[in-house]
Write a structure and sequence with these properties.
Shape: globular
Strand content: 5-15%
Radius of gyration: 11 Å
Number of helices: 4
Strand order of the largest sheet: 1-2
Structural class: mainly alpha
């Protein structure tokens, strides 16, 4: 599955775009505009996405990668 397919599936499942999820992560203090917030591990974002949006590990990792700047 391509990276874009993961992002599209996340949006279909959650109703939230990757940009929206990044904005929510920033509001929660898990991320900033440049990536993960200082001291935050990817696991914290994965746990949040699994708990609040019922995402699987692979889809949550795609959002972590998106937050870190991956776009393709």
């Amino acid at each position: 599955m391509s990276f874009q397919a993961y992002i599209d599936n996340v949006e279909a499942k959650t109703g939230q775009s990757a940009d929206n999820l990044k904005a929510i992560a920033i509001e929660k203090g898990l991320a900033d505009e440049s990536g993960l917030a200082p001291g935050v591990k990817a696991t914290a974002i994965i746990d949040w996405l699994k708990a609040d949006y019922d995402l699987g590990h692979g889809h949550a990792m795609a959002i972590v990668a998106y937050i870190k700047g991956k776009r393709s």
